[in-house]
Amino acid sequence: MRFDEIKNRYNAASLLMRFIYINIAVFVVLRLVGVLSFLGTGDSNVLVQWVELPADLWLLLRRPWTIITYMFSHYGVLHILFNMLWFYWLGRIFLEFFTPRQLGGLYVLGGLGGAALYIAAYNLLPHLNGSQAMMLGASASVMAIVIAVSVYRPDYQINLLFIGGVSLKWVAIATVFIDLIGIEGANMGGHIAHLGGMLMGLWFGLSIKRGHDITSWINRCIDAVVSIFKKRPRQKAWEPIKGNASKAKKTKKAKKQTKTADSDKSEPSASLDEQRLDEILGKLKRSGYGALSDEEKEFLFNASRKR
User: Fold this and answer.
1) pTM exceeding 0.90
2) Are both 164 and 285 inside the same structural domain?
3) What's the domain range around 129?
4) Do 91 and 202 have their domain in common?
5) Do 137 and 279 belong together in one domain?
6) How far apart (Å, rounded) are the C-alpha atoms in residues 34 and 74?
7) Number of structural domains found in the chain
8) What is the rounded distance in angstroms from the CA atom of residue 32 to the CA atom of residue 235?
9) Are residues 212 and 279 in the same domain?
10) What pLDDT does residue 237 have?
11) What would the DSSP string read from start to end of the chain?
12) Top-confidence residue, 243 or 134
């Protein structure tokens, strides 16, 4: 598959699928670079260390971008597989009730909530303070989606393999229970981050029921960042764009001709246009827009532009 085809498929995809594509692309890059680095130096962590989230505050200050990059990064095959399947499955249910912007905003917000609880635990709990822990993965973001839709529609039925129909509230309760008892295991930091994402999902679900969307501010921040990269540098007045000099002269000449032609228009012509417009507006009022002919629609469109 060519790059242009991949780009077109990405541009045509929903926001849910775009986030999945981003996670897969980052995973592929991390693994390829890891393999090449391992063959050359014996260290496969050369790139991962720049995207994973450190629990150490001083290291985090030197790598502040990791608070975002970690939630789009995976290194284990099963890790990304289960996260993306979970995200796709519950994300589609989420989109039955909410907008793609809310999905994207909650994904980021859940990741931030997971990062905040993870960092707080490793710096405030006595037996964890000073640990050189690192974390990556979209689990906290995905958990925010799971809990949010479960809180908003707790009785929504889904079918589980070997079990059958189950309400989302039981899925949420089971997920919380598994992460709580998993805190004392080997992936303690990951389970703590999951709980942080779940709290964001709970906050979103309860706030939506009260008519407040907590993702609105994060989406405004994302829009502001995106707009910075979309802005084009202004053209200096003394640097005309190549090939546009003749075009500018033609435009100026056309405007002059248009002005001359407009000055030659007679008052009867203007009054006929007004009469024609009144007739079309009357027909529009009586029979609706669909009753207008193509010529009448074009005339109405041109008249509205002039006004």
Assistant:
1) no
2) no
3) 3-230
4) yes
5) no
6) 12
7) 2
8) 41
9) no
10) 44
11) --HHHHHHHHHHS-HHHHHHHHHHHHHHHHHHHHHHHHHHHS-S-TTGGGTSEES-HHHHHH-TTHHHHGGG---SHHHHHHHHHHHHHHHHHHTTTS-HHHHHHHHHHHHHHHHHHHHHHHHHSTTTTT---EE--SHHHHHHHHHHHHHHSTT-EEEETTTEEEEHHHHHHHHHHHHHHGGGSTTHHHHHHHHHHHHHHHHHHHHHHTT--TTHHHHHHHHHHHHHHHPPPPPPTTSPPTT-HHHHHHHHHHHHHHHHHHHT--HHHHHHHHHHHHHHHHHHHHH-GGGS-HHHHHHHHHHHHH-
12) 134
Q: Are residues 282 and 187 in the same domain?
A: no
Do 11 and 136 fall within a single domain?
Answer: yes
pLDDT in tens, 116-158: 999 999 999 887 776 788 999 999 999 999 999 999 999 999 8
Q: Which amino acid is at 191?
A: H
